[in-house]
């Protein structure tokens, strides 16, 4: 949807700012960027919060705005289908309310619903989409900014309905109508026209259309490059222009972040897989299998079927017969979720026939020695798809072969198939109660990955106590049912399950903030051979969170990390680290900090108001590095290791105050920072070299500076105001700290004037 349709939001932002809702106003403007740029953690936090606040303030247009962008973040690049249709239908109903229907953006709800339905099953929902979009378009003029977006979805629905020629004509007419009122078609409309032309068998015209649309303004500018590349590659591949298609096709590491591109990218690759430039590998098959599962979770039923069929054809081409057969089964089953499965049965039958006519690669080892050959295979160059076929004759009969076969199936994305083999062998064969712990572990993992929870619970009832409770503990951990996981892990430990039960109990205890329990259960196993360094670090983190410093010292000694003090809290200076903390908008912030212990750090930089942490706070972090140490020695010298924060241990009680203004001379700034350092007040500049302010008389642009200074709890706001005033009184241009001035009610008008005159 053209962002111009939200022009009224700017005025609403200004009104909110003037009414004292500046944070709310600022957050509004960032929602489209969050949706388009893929900042989904922020969007999933901020959009619902803004919608709720808008409802509280009685601003239904803004509530619609927030709900719309949240939905677009789901049905756009993430391509959510059936899981989003209900929310899209609610948005349409909301847009029809009397206090919303006059909003210029209200038609966007119809477009969003059509997109969600297309994601679920384009052909199946085609008639329903056309019925809703038609009246919405008729109610608009080409001058309306909602027009192009609705027309784009109408063209898409016509194509999905098998009416490609009508879709082409409709798109051409719409583009002409837009031109007649001096409005340019969106890139999305041009791209949809090219899809219709391709569906109509006019690949040359489709290529001309996508090229003609290249200069059109996109509604989603972030997505245009990779979407255009995929569409162009598919058209060129259809035309047999292989080298050009390969050049146009975005790399997998680009497309892998954009589910909306998955199907067309796979279709293009399938057409190019026979060329020297595109290699049809087992790695490709594994990726496509992951994409199939993604659409299964998102309700992208049509995409799931299409990917299964494309992946099956590719599997046949590389002689992966077993995989092609499983993908045919998957496509056949997934087709039952389609509203319109026309043509699917024929394609499934063709895939089965191709698989049956294909000879699988012959094994390079005798059947009786196959397990030994598997174990000796090169882990880098070996082909796991081939090994699945070679081990299949032994799997379900020989336990060693079964272990390797089923775990390889799970690795390639077929855990349910592996679970079926193990289940038949152990459960149906009546051997589960006496099975080896390793086999119970393998089967448990396969069932968890396949999300066959009821089956796992059924198996657990057949196991002896320790195995039963450990299997259930793993299930509850995977499903984030922490209390149940603790209960089952405790019972497993009591029944003699050992280190695995301790790990499960420690993990679940940490989630429930029962850190002392988790640390103790690991410490009890500290002398055993099963305890790894990873277990020791987990114990250290838990003990630190519980402030059990004795256990922290015991763990530090075990891993060879010296601690100077012999008792009490560990407070040392162990170098700089970067602590990764959550931001209120759902994103993350990196805060430079001083490492004070094996798993503690004190934040060194002041944070803006509204954050749940600030300079002086002591946090617990996970000692696992988030980035590898650089290989280059020079880079190592400047490398500050990043760690993920686990929890706040003790707040420092610091308060931050914002300052803003024209940058002073280097001498004045050096003196200012020295004054802050002498008092131990952390200060940090958040502006960069691009930040500029306006000279109050000439209007010329001046280098600006803004940041935060944090003060400890024993310093009053009045003291801060007085110090800032004294430290900056000789500057050529004054510094403003308006929020602080209002708090202490000192020279508020002067600070307001500075803000206004310098355009801060």
From TrEMBL:
Xref: Gene3D superfamilies: Tetratricopeptide repeat domain
Name of this protein: Tetratricopeptide repeat protein
């Amino acid at each position: 949807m053209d962002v111009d349709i939200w022009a009224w939001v700017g005025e609403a932002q200004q009104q909110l700012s003037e009414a004292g809702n500046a944070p709310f106003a600022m957050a509004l403007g960032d929602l489209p960027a969050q949706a388009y740029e893929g900042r989904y953690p922020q969007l999933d936090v901020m959009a619902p919060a803004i919608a709720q606040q808008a409802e509280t303030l009685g601003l239904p247009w803004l509530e619609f705005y927030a709900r719309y962008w949240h939905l677009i973040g789901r049905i756009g690049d993430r391509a959510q289908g059936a899981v989003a249709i209900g929310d899209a239908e609610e948005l349409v109903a909301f847009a029809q309310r009397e206090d919303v229907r006059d909003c210029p953006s209200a038609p966007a709800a119809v477009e969003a619903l059509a997109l969600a339905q297309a994601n679920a099953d384009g052909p199946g929902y085609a008639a329903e989409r056309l019925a809703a979009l038609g009246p919405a378009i008729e109610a608009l003029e080409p001058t309306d900014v909602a027009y192009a977006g609705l027309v784009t979805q109408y063209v898409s629905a016509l194509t999905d309905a098998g009416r490609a020629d009508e879709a082409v004509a409709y798109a051409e007419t719409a583009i002409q109508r837009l031109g007649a009122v001096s409005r340019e078609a969106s890139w999305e409309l041009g791209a949809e026209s090219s899809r219709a032309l391709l569906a109509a068998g006019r690949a040359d015209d489709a290529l001309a259309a996508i090229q003609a649309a290249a200069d059109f303004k996109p509604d989603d500018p972030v997505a245009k490059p990779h979407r255009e590349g995929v569409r162009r590659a598919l058209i060129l591949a259809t035309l047999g222009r292989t080298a050009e298609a390969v050049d146009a096709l975005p790399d997998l590491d680009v497309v892998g972040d954009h589910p909306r591109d998955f199907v067309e990218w796979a279709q293009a690759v399938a057409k190019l897989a026979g060329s020297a430039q595109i290699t049809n590998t087992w790695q490709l098959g594994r990726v496509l299998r992951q994409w199939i599962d993604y659409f299964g979770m998102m309700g992208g039923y049509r995409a799931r079927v299409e990917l299964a069929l494309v992946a099956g054809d590719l599997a046949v081409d590389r002689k992966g017969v077993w995989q092609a057969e499983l993908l045919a089964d998957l496509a056949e089953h997934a087709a039952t979720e389609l509203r319109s499965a026309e043509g699917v049965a024929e394609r499934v039958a063709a895939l089965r026939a191709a698989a049956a006519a294909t000879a699988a690669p012959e094994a390079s080892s005798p059947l009786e020695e196959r397990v030994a050959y598997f174990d000796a295979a090169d882990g880098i160059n070996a082909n796991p798809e081939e090994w699945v076929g070679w081990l299949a004759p032994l799997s379900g009969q020989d336990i060693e072969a079964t272990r390797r076969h089923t775990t390889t199936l799970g690795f390639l994305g077929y855990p349910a198939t592996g679970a079926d083999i193990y289940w038949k062998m152990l459960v149906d064969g009546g051997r589960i109660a006496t099975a080896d712990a390793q086999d119970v572990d393998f089967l448990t993992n396969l069932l968890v990955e396949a999300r066959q929870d009821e089956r796992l619970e059924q198996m657990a009832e057949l196991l002896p106590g320790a195995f039963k409770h450990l299997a259930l503990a793993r299930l509850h951990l995977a499903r984030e049912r922490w209390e149940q996981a603790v209960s089952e892990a405790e019972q497993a430990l009591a029944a003699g399950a050992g280190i695995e039960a301790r790990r499960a109990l420690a993990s679940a205890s940490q989630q429930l903030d029962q850190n002392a329990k988790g640390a103790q259960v690991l410490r009890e196993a500290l002398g055993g051979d099963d305890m790894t360094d990873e277990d020791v670090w987990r114990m250290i983190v838990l003990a630190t969170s519980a402030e059990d410093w004795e256990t922290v010292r015991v763990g530090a000694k075990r891993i060879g990390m010296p601690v100077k003090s012999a008792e009490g809290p560990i407070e040392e200076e162990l170098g700089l680290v970067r602590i990764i903390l959550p931001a209120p908008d759902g994103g993350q912030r990196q805060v430079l900090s001083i490492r004070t212990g094996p798993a503690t750090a004190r934040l060194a930089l002041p944070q803006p108001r509204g954050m749940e942490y600030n300079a002086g706070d002591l946090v617990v972090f996970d000692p696992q590095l988030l980035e590898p140490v650089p290989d280059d020695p020079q880079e190592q010298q400047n490398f500050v290791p990043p760690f993920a924060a686990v929890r706040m241990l003790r707040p420092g009680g610091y308060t931050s105050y914002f300052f803003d203004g024209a940058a002073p001379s280097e001498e004045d700034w050096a003196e200012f920072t020295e004054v802050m350092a002498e008092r131990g007040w952390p200060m940090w500049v958040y502006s960069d070299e691009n930040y500029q302010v306006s000279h109050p008389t000439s209007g010329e642009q001046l280098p600006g500076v803004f940041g935060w200074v944090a003060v400890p709890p024993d310093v009053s706001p009045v003291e801060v105001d007085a110090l800032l005033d004294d430290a900056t009184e000789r500057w050529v241009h004054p510094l403003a700290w308006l929020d602080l001035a209002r708090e202490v009610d000192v020279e508020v008008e002067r600070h307001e004037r500075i803000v206004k005159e310098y355009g801060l």
